[in-house]
Amino acid sequence: MEKRPVLIDLLEALVEAWSDTYTATDIRADVEKIILLKRARDRLLEEGLQPTETIDGFYTGVFLREQFGSTPP
């Protein structure tokens, strides 16, 4: 059984906690959360890791261009 990288586990736990506490609109209004989410996901991609469905779905929900109004920061 292959062990998942800690970075994926941490980001998934954060996304799940935020999903229980905040709406996508709340997160879009919080610049620090946007920066943290974007940097963490970018780091996964830099490391050649594939975000889980949970992470990818949450990221997409926060950064939908129709709702966000432009490209993500």
Note down, in words, how this protein is organized:
The protein is mainly alpha-helical. The protein has one domain (6-68). 70% of the residues lie in helices and 0% in strands. It contains 5 helices and no strands. It has helices spanning 6-21, 24-28, 31-46, 53-62, 65-68. The longest helix has 16 residues, at 6-21. It starts with 5 loop residues before the first helix and ends in a 5-residue tail after the last helix.
Proportion in helices: 55-70%
Structural class: mainly alpha
Count of DSSP strands? 0
Which stretches of 5+ consecutive residues score pLDDT under 50?
none
Order of helices and strands: HHHHH
- Specify the overall morphology: globular
Main beta sheet strand tally, sense and closure: none
The helix count comes to: 5
Taking Cα atoms only, what radius of gyration do you get, to the nearest Å?
Answer: 12 Å
